[in-house]
């Protein structure tokens, strides 16, 4: 069968048409899953105009509209809903084929999309990602630092660094490190509010709290458990902001131990050091299919190996 390019009236090989259709179908699936041309462009590493053009060409070749477009949103037409299911299967098969090929290689190759909290990501994850890329320069990275808990599948991430137990049963996870937490305060706050010496004293103090914390502090000492409800005038979802508010004397804070040791001596005071708290476990969370790719397995193992080593502090 012979096809003609309408603009130049030249013959177009059949395989070129099939390749264009396949590219358009995968792009269309990404647009639907991302909810916008801009987000799909970011994930595919292309310009927004190129993504929009591919979908438009696909609609022209099919002779049917797949998407309702407006300035603020996209929605599927009835034909688009049916067609998306086929495109989704083809996209998943293509990704699975790539994973199978990559798993046969001795060197990780390709793009890895990772999301992590902003403060921990900047301090610990980003430096390790840089080292990993020096070791394996064929790796490309798409790193998103956010304190919002994003959906791994909908966001198109290969890896998400999360704290606490895994809530999504469809995901897989690997523990990569544990973080010891300490009760800390700035000297200026303790001078004005007094220094707590017993767990019971903590309830009467102001706290700078983390937005996803339950508000109940659990302490242990010599087999005895203590539970204290903590409240305060400042609540934040960002660990860096929490640290700055504590340093500013606005209240007590429950901080990772490494944040305490990173401060110049005297900036923060550790309180009730003889009482223990359960460590905060960090996990690499990833879709089941990602586990079969060499690049994802190697990066998760690399993070686990290096994060488990305590940083050197003066």
Structure description:
The chain has 314 residues and is an alpha/beta fold. The protein is 41% helix and 25% strand. The chain has ten helices and 16 strands. The chain has helices spanning 14-34, 37-44, 48-62, 78-103, 118-135, 152-155, 187-193, 239-247, 257-262, 294-307; strands at residues 3-4, 11-12, 67-69, 74-76, 110-116, 139-145, 159-163, 172-179, 181-185, 206-210, 216-221, 224-229, 231-236, 252-256, 269-271, 280-286. Strands 6-5-7-16-8 form a five-stranded mixed sheet, covered by helices on one side. The longest helix is centred in the N-terminal third of the chain and has 26 residues, at 78-103. The radius of gyration is 25 Å and the shape is elongated. The N and C termini lie far apart (73 Å). The model is unreliable at 1-9 (pLDDT under 50).
Offer a concise description of the structure:
The protein is of the alpha/beta class and 314 residues long. It is 41% helix and 25% strand.
Identify the notable features of this structure and list them briefly.
25% strand; 5-stranded mixed beta sheet; 10 helices; 16 strands; 314 residues; disordered N terminus; alpha/beta
């Amino acid at each position: 069968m012979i096809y003609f390019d309408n603009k130049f009236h030249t013959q177009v090989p059949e395989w070129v048409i099939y390749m264009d259709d396949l590219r358009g179908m995968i792009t269309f699936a990404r647009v639907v899953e991302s909810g916008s041309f801009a987000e799909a462009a970011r994930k595919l590493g292309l310009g927004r105009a190129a993504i929009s053009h591919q979908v438009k060409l696909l609609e022209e070749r099919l002779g049917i509209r797949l998407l309702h477009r407006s300035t603020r949103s996209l929605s599927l037409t009835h034909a688009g809903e049916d067609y998306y299911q086929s495109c989704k299967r083809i996209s998943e098969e293509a990704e699975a084929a790539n994973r199978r090929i990559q798993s046969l290689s001795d060197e990780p190759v390709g793009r890895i999309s990772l999301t992590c909290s902003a403060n921990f990501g900047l301090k610990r994850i980003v430096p390790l990602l840089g080292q990993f890329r020096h070791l394996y320069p064929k790796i490309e990275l798409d790193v998103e630092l956010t304190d919002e808990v994003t959906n791994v599948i909908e966001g198109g991430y290969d890896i998400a660094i999360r704290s606490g137990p895994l809530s999504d049963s469809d995901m897989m996870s690997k523990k990569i490190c544990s973080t010891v937490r300490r009760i800390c305060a700035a000297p200026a706050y303790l001078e004005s509010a007094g220094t707590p010496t017993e767990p019971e004293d903590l309830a009467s103090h102001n706290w700078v709290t983390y937005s996803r914390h339950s508000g109940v502090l659990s302490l242990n000492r010599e087999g005895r458990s203590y539970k204290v409800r903590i409240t305060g005038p400042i609540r934040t979802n960002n660990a860096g902001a929490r640290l700055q508010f504590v340093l500013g004397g606005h209240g007590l804070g429950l901080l990772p131990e490494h944040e305490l040791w990173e401060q110049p001596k005297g900036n923060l005071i550790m309180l009730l050091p003889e009482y223990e708290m359960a460590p905060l476990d960090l996990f690499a969370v990833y879709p089941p299919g990602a586990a079969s790719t060499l690049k994802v397995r190697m990066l998760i193992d690399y993070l686990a190996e290096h994060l488990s080593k305590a940083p050197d502090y003066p």
